[in-house]
TrEMBL record:
<dbReference type="GO" id="GO:0005829">
    <property type="term" value="C:cytosol"/>
</dbReference>
<dbReference type="InterPro" id="IPR036676">
    <property type="entry name" value="PurM-like_C_sf"/>
</dbReference>
<dbReference type="Pfam" id="PF00586">
    <property type="entry name" value="AIRS"/>
</dbReference>
<keyword id="KW-0436">Ligase</keyword>
<dbReference type="InterPro" id="IPR036921">
    <property type="entry name" value="PurM-like_N_sf"/>
</dbReference>
<dbReference type="GO" id="GO:0046084">
    <property type="term" value="P:adenine biosynthetic process"/>
</dbReference>
<dbReference type="GO" id="GO:0006189">
    <property type="term" value="P:'de novo' IMP biosynthetic process"/>
</dbReference>
<feature type="domain" description="PurM-like N-terminal">
    <location>
        <begin position="61"/>
        <end position="165"/>
    </location>
</feature>
<dbReference type="GO" id="GO:0004641">
    <property type="term" value="F:phosphoribosylformylglycinamidine cyclo-ligase activity"/>
</dbReference>
<keyword id="KW-0658">Purine biosynthesis</keyword>
<dbReference type="InterPro" id="IPR004733">
    <property type="entry name" value="PurM_cligase"/>
</dbReference>
<comment type="similarity">
    <text>Belongs to the AIR synthase family.</text>
</comment>
<keyword id="KW-0067">ATP-binding</keyword>
<dbReference type="GO" id="GO:0004637">
    <property type="term" value="F:phosphoribosylamine-glycine ligase activity"/>
</dbReference>
<keyword id="KW-0547">Nucleotide-binding</keyword>
<dbReference type="InterPro" id="IPR016188">
    <property type="entry name" value="PurM-like_N"/>
</dbReference>
<feature type="domain" description="PurM-like C-terminal">
    <location>
        <begin position="177"/>
        <end position="338"/>
    </location>
</feature>
Length: 369
């Protein structure tokens, strides 16, 4: 111990670096904020003016929180940090819009072994850009330096968002019925789920991130770091289209397509999903072939090219597909909702819900193209 004693900086925490990071990111954050956000950057709490919603008859707040999992390891390995924010925002706000709620504002949290202002600013700028795409204000956040707990170049990110929906506008299982049609919305790639499996496969194969993969048309690292598609604005636009007759949405994240779709189906129904309705993108085929991963594991872990699903009235199918085409979202008819025959034992190919939700079931049929 020196005669002057230990300081916070000597313990590994640099508060000046944190201040510099805020200066580097604040313009990007401000671009997400409209007149509803009060106080600007740097306050103890973000303030949001709710006056515009005074005419709601029975407003409900919707909230969600999430992180991006081990995808951060890819960003750290490539030393590229300006896209991981899209993964964070997508994981959070796209859970909120599933119930028909408009995501109003978001906060973020970054924990790192050492605050490198430029790196933190890159992360937050990515979050802010994704918030702009989602139409969501970034009202605050926190960066914490954890020396000794995390290595200097390690970090993790998390976020939370709040949205609003009129009570009689909530979407979900209560609206879904026999004959409804499933509309798939294409993913941008792996999104932000299943990276523990993907990283294990890559390690098993002995591939490096800078390896050019012909089937992907770019390096492995570039593919694995492809940002999550943020659906929020497009989903809300589709829900607002009266001709589409939207009854429910599901966000395809951890657990795969079938388990997440089952969460928004009422008991006594089964969604039949046609695997032959789309071509699985190359990155998923690569994971399967490199790791010898069984199809069941792939389907229960990765999105396989479907990032969001809308459940619409059969009469609204064409309108929904036209609307998504205009919005620039790849979409196709994925399957239909049927009544589950409860007089016979449930076949082994039926998948139920996850996260403690027990409602309808999903059956995947045919083979992928």
């Amino acid at each position: 111990m020196t005669s002057e004693g230990l300081t916070y900086a000597a313990a590994g925490v640099d508060t000046e670096a944190g201040d510099k990071a805020v200066e580097l990111m604040k313009d990007a954050v401000r671009r997400t904020q409209g007149p509803e956000v009060l106080g600007g950057v740097g306050g103890f709490a973000g303030l949001y003016d709710m006056s515009a919603f005074r005419d709601y008859r029975k407003p409900l707040l919707a909230t969600s929180t999430d992180g991006v999992g081990t995808k951060v390891a890819i960003a750290q390995a490539l030393d590229k940090h300006d896209t991981i924010g899209f993964d964070l925002v997508g994981m959070v706000v796209d859970d909120i819009v599933v119930v028909g709620a408009k995501p109003l504002f978001m906060t973020d949290y970054i924990a790192t072994g050492k605050v490198v202002p430029e790196r933190v600013a890159d992360i937050v700028r990515g979050i802010a850009q994704a918030c702009e795409v989602a139409g969501t204000a970034l009202v605050g956040g926190e960066t914490a330096e954890h020396p000794g707990l995390l290595a200097p170049d390690e970090y993790d990110v998390a976020g939370a968002a709040t949205g609003i929906v009129e009570a009689d506008g909530v979407l979900g299982p209560e609206r879904v019925r026999e004959g409804d049609v499933l509309i798939a919305m294409g993913s941008s790639g792996l999104h932000s789920n299943g990276y523990s499996l993907v990283r294990a496969v890559v390690k098993h194969a002995g591939w490096e991130l800078d390896r050019h993969v012909e089937e992907l048309g770019r390096t492995l690292g570039e593919e694995l770091l492809e940002p999550t598609r943020v659906y929020a604005s497009d989903v809300l636009a589709l829900a607002a289209d009266d001709a589409a007759h939207v009854h429910a949405f599901t966000h395809v994240t951890g657990g795969g397509l079938a388990a997440n779709l089952a969460r928004v189906l009422p008991a006594g129904t089964v969604a039949t999903v046609d695997r032959a309705s789309w071509e699985v993108p190359p990155v998923f085929r690569m994971v399967r072939e490199l790791g010898g991963v069984p199809r069941g594991d792939l389907e229960n872990t990765l999105n396989l090219g479907v990032g969001m699903v809308a459940v619409v009235d059969a009469e609204g199918t064409d309108a929904a597909l036209r609307r998504l085409e205009v919005l620039g979202v790849p979409a196709w008819e994925l399957g239909r909702i049927e009544t589950l025959d409860l007089t016979t034992p449930s076949p082994e190919d039926l998948v139920g819900g996850t996260k403690g939700v027990r409602g309808g079931a999903v059956r995947l049929v045919n083979e992928y193209r």
